[in-house]
Amino acid sequence: MTIDEERASAARELSWLLTTLTSTLISVRTGLTECLDLLSPANTSTLPFSTPRSEVLKGFITRSGPQITRGELSLHLQRQRGKLSVRAPWVLEQLVDVENYVLRSLELVANGAFREGEEEKDPKSTMQLLQALQENVSAARAALRAASAHRLFPFHAVDPKVFEPPLVPGAAAFSLHIAEASLVVEVRTLEPVAPADNGRGNFLAGIDISPFGFRERFAAAVGIHHGPASRAHASGEEEVVSFNGTKVRVKEVVRVESQDPSLMAAWAKLGGLEHVLAGSIDGNTEISFVMSSL
Question: Which domain holds residue 75?
Answer without folding.
Answer: 44-114+143-195+240-261
